[in-house]
Write a structure and sequence with these properties.
Two copies of one chain form a homodimer.
Chain A (H helix, E strand, L loop, with lengths): L7 H19 L4 E2 L1 H8 L3 H9 L5 E2 L3 E3 H12 L7 E4 L3 H7 L2 H5 L4 E6 L8 E2 L2 E5 L3 H8 L3 E4 L3 H13 L4 E4 L12 E4 L2 H15 L3
Parallel strand pairs in A: 4-5, 4-8, 5-7, 8-9, 9-10
Antiparallel strand pairs in A: 1-3, 2-3, 6-7
Helix pairs in contact in A: 1-2, 1-3, 1-4, 2-3
Chain A binds a DNA duplex (22 and 22 nucleotides) through helix 1, helix 3 and strand 2.
Chain lengths: 211, 211
DNA sequence: TCGTGTGAATCACTTCACAGCT
DNA sequence: AGCTGTGAAGTGATTCACACGA
């Protein structure tokens, strides 16, 4: 089931379409064409049609797509909207920040546990969660049924932390540490690299000075 | 000058190589092969060689690349390490978080101004910076010589804020708001979409249940 | 012999263009 | 007439494979 070999590029756009569709639907718009959907999600009409065609044929020729239907179908592919609890490891300033960021909760990934190794931080309560020590991770994952790990440690600690997460049964990791971590094949790691994003912007800024 | 038509994909890897090279160099390693560099930066040897070949021929056959030389050459392409001051707009919980994140400062993008529209927030001091109102943005950009804008507003406010940033002369924008913004061609916007990253992880997690 | 540098082959994604349904 | 769904063509990135210099 659900085996439709969705290209990675399409997958990331589908999440954007879905947000746009929910907004349309909330404002009472019942149907939308590939052109309109492209417009609001910063895509283009062929891409939208191709992307949606991976899900099946849910559009109506001459008319467009029913927003509600499409929201449901994308939801099915993305794995329903069942919440996936997350533990966050690394209570530095980024970790502290993200632990209070409601965006995770809102998108269905509530943070249910906080972990660090610094004895000055372990025991502290942030946002109603008491920071646990790294050696309690397995227990924490078990108790909270967490399925997602968010890593906000310094680069040097990231590999060890990821190993602990995998050991504790976590198979999906979002890594904010500016380092590439090794994991076994079954584990999916996605990296959010703020420094790289900035440097790319810096590069284009630099380029502009020579046009 | 500096016109070497670097593919986007190579560009983002170069920033990763550079971090790895700095680390190698700091631990006294003078030369590195494409294989070794690939290993530590999560790439592969052909990609490394191809990426580095965009810069010129700085390797030595049979030996590898001099770390110090390579750091310098990548630095030249990425636009030197001159700091590029940034203003951050949107003092919600993510904005507050990022305004205290030292990573920006460390990578050469110090946050030199904070902006919001909420009168309850404007005037507040965070990390030594007083939050300004959106209508003071132009003045702030002028006074601080900011060249980069970081947008951490809710989705609904992002387009207006981006328009103000562009109006104020900012040409490079890092957008954390979960919405695609329109800008004129000369402006470079990069989007960091945490909700999408999570959903992609969710998708793979979901898939694993049917293998 | 070892590892770079690079054309050529392959693969993945995007865009085109149009047949076919409503 | 309008808009989807989709093969086919085009584009760009990755990987292969090997000639060449150290």
């Amino acid at each position: 089931m659900s085996n439709l070999n969705l290209p990675e590029a399409a997958l990331s756009r589908l999440t954007v379409y879905q947000r746009a569709l929910v907004e349309l639907n909330d404002s009472g718009i019942k149907t939308v064409s590939s052109r309109e959907l492209a417009e609001i999600s910063g895509s283009n009409e062929s891409k939208v049609r191709k992307d949606l065609s991976y899900l099946g044929s849910y559009g109506t020729r001459g008319v467009g797509y029913e927003t509600e239907r499409l929201i449901k179908e994308i939801g099915v592919v993305l794995g329903g909207s069942q919440p996936r609890p997350a533990v966050l490891v690394g209570i530095g300033n980024l970790g502290r920040a993200l632990s209070q960021y409601e965006g995770f909760q809102v998108s269905g990934f509530p943070i249910v546990g906080l972990v660090d190794t610094d004895p000055n931080v372990v025991g502290e309560t942030i946002n109603g969660l008491k920071v646990k020590n790294l050696d309690q991770l397995e227990e924490l994952v078990f108790q909270t049924s967490a399925v997602l790990g968010i890593v906000t440690t310094p680069a040097a600690a990231a590999q060890e932390v990821v190993d602990c997460l995998v050991e504790a049964g976590i198979r999906s990791i979002l890594n904010f540490a500016p380092v590439v971590v090794d994991v076994v094949e079954e584990v999916e790691v996605r990296k959010v690299d703020l420094a790289t994003e900035l440097q790319i912007l810096g590069y284009y800024d630099h380029l502009r000075k020579f046009d």
